[in-house]
């Protein structure tokens, strides 16, 4: 199935939760914490609605269908138009556009997951196979702790190698927190990620790059670490 066909099929299931009419992408720094419950409200006829609690900051992109809906999408890889080898500040504040690929921003993710208990869902496709992984515990620590990742309690059919990234700090090409003595994993693999000398999974890799370890990698689906996922979304939901 072609990527554009996938997106066309998903279109009725995904909604913009808008705060500012001309905001092109993810939120900037110092935003008030969004109200995650907005993603659980029924869709309007045109699939859009306003949340004033997120004013002056941007938008949330919600999945209202998967496992009952209510998911805030914070990462999406569907095209090759947004490069994910960004700086620390870019990953902190967010980048990309909801029309294609984006990263919501570590600061927003951290604020939300430290205010309430969240779970993580990752939907992905490789070839004709569509898989998912759910972690019933999901938390990203504040910047003072280098946005350390906490995940736990896996379910799904995609495999659970991501648990090896539990307690990893986030790294970028200009901020090396990966624990590797010899390498800057983010610099070597051209991506900001929760690297751990260096990785089992890397969903921020170079999209559709078929070289070893350089693509968008979910190791259980590509044990030789060659190739790339065709499509992936990371999303979180308040428990």
UniProtKB/TrEMBL annotation:
<feature type="domain" description="Fibrinogen C-terminal">
    <location>
        <begin position="22"/>
        <end position="239"/>
    </location>
</feature>
<dbReference type="InterPro" id="IPR002181">
    <property type="entry name" value="Fibrinogen_a/b/g_C_dom"/>
</dbReference>
<keyword id="KW-0732">Signal</keyword>
<dbReference type="InterPro" id="IPR014716">
    <property type="entry name" value="Fibrinogen_a/b/g_C_1"/>
</dbReference>
<dbReference type="GO" id="GO:0005178">
    <property type="term" value="F:integrin binding"/>
</dbReference>
<dbReference type="InterPro" id="IPR050373">
    <property type="entry name" value="Fibrinogen_C-term_domain"/>
</dbReference>
<protein>
    <recommendedName>
        <fullName>Fibrinogen C-terminal domain-containing protein</fullName>
    </recommendedName>
</protein>
<dbReference type="GO" id="GO:0007160">
    <property type="term" value="P:cell-matrix adhesion"/>
</dbReference>
<dbReference type="InterPro" id="IPR036056">
    <property type="entry name" value="Fibrinogen-like_C"/>
</dbReference>
<feature type="signal peptide">
    <location>
        <begin position="1"/>
        <end position="19"/>
    </location>
</feature>
<dbReference type="GO" id="GO:0005615">
    <property type="term" value="C:extracellular space"/>
</dbReference>
<dbReference type="GO" id="GO:1990138">
    <property type="term" value="P:neuron projection extension"/>
</dbReference>
<dbReference type="Pfam" id="PF00147">
    <property type="entry name" value="Fibrinogen_C"/>
</dbReference>
